[in-house]
């Protein structure tokens, strides 16, 4: 199921498949013994549509959120992040299937993948209302970098993707909601509020399973987290942090504050 989603290029087809597979997973969980966790080789890069054109971040034009065009660009960037997140969550399921995990691990990431699919569709609706669509603008090419860097490192993947990148989403989403509130765009506000609420869960799944694996290997989570983020994340973390939501997601300050400093 995961590999099928990863190999599907079109955004709408990918998210439709993702939601259908999530529904059958949860239907089987209700019905009795869970579906068997198979083994597979996910693609190094998930299939993506021909549009948007992917550019290096410095070549993606910056637009001011004070204009309607700027807000479309912002929504387009969010749609791109959500589609990437669909792939990231199915990828963690497929890529590390040789490590025996409790069934709840799969429940969490299937649910997260389902939610990302919903997020992509919500934002696509907002784009459509503004006469645009996903693919109309250029997008960031570096989104799969974290997945590539941690393709061989399960704990590294959990540290960098949910606990750094998705946690960053918790820091910046309130500001984005404010932009659309100010411009009186209620549907965009509502959609971003759904995303904001559900993303806390994704970060929480990350810290839950990261702590679980540390416990399994009798390692100190904070020490391991610092080492893995320094190894795989190519920058320091940037405040301000959403300390309240990070706490709700099981990320204490001593995990992220030390990573704001460059090591000599
Ligand atoms: Fe999302
Ligand atoms: Fe997420």
Characteristic key phrases:
two-stranded parallel sheet, 264 residues, Ferritin, single chain, Ferritin-like_SF, binds fe (ii) ion, UCP012318, Ferritin-like domain-containing protein, mainly alpha, globular
Provide an overview of this structure:
The chain contains ten helices and two strands. With 264 residues, the chain is an all-alpha fold. The protein has one domain (2-39, 51-260): Ferritin. Strands 1-2 form a two-stranded parallel sheet. Helix 3 runs antiparallel to helix 4 (103-129), helix 3 runs antiparallel to helix 6 (154-182) and helix 6 (154-182) crosses helix 8 (221-232).
List the helices and strands and how they pair.
Layout: H1 2-6, H2 11-31, E1 54-55, H3 68-95, H4 103-129, E2 139-140, H5 145-149, H6 154-182, H7 186-216, H8 221-232, H9 243-248, H10 253-256
Parallel strand pairs: 1-2
Helix pairs in contact: 2-4, 3-4, 3-6, 4-7, 6-7, 6-8
Pfam families: DUF455
Protein name: Ferritin-like domain-containing protein
InterPro entries: DUF455, Ferritin-like_SF, UCP012318
């Amino acid at each position: 199921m995961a590999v099928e989603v990863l190999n599907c290029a079109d955004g709408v087809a990918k998210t439709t498949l993702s939601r259908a597979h999530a529904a059958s997973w949860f239907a089987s969980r209700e019905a009795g013994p869970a579906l068997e966790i198979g083994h597979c080789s996910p693609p190094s890069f998930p299939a993506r549509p021909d549009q948007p054109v992917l550019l290096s971040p410095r070549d993606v034009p910056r637009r001011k959120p004070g204009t309607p065009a700027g807000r479309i660009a912002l929504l387009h960037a969010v749609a791109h992040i959500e589609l990437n997140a669909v792939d990231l969550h199915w990828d963690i399921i497929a890529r590390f299937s040789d490590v025996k995990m409790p069934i709840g691990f799969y429940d969490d990431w299937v649910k997260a993948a389902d939610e990302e699919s919903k997020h992509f569709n919500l934002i696509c609706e907002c784009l459509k209302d503004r006469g645009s669509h996903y693919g109309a603008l250029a997008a960031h090419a570096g989104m799969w970098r974290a997945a590539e860097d941690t393709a061989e490192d399960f704990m590294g993947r959990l540290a960098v993707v949910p606990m750094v990148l998705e946690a960053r989403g918790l820091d910046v989403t309130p500001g984005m909601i404010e932009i659309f509130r100010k411009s009186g765009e209620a549907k965009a506000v509502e959609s971003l509020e759904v995303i904001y609420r559900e993303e806390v869960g994704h970060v929480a799944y990350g810290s839950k399973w990261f702590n679980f694996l540390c416990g399994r290997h009798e390692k100190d989570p904070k020490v391991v987290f610092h080492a893995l983020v320094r190894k795989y994340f190519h920058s320091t973390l940037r405040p301000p942090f959403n300390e309240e939501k990070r706490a709700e997601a099981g990320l204490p300050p001593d995990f992220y504050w030390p990573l704001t400093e460059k090591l000599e």
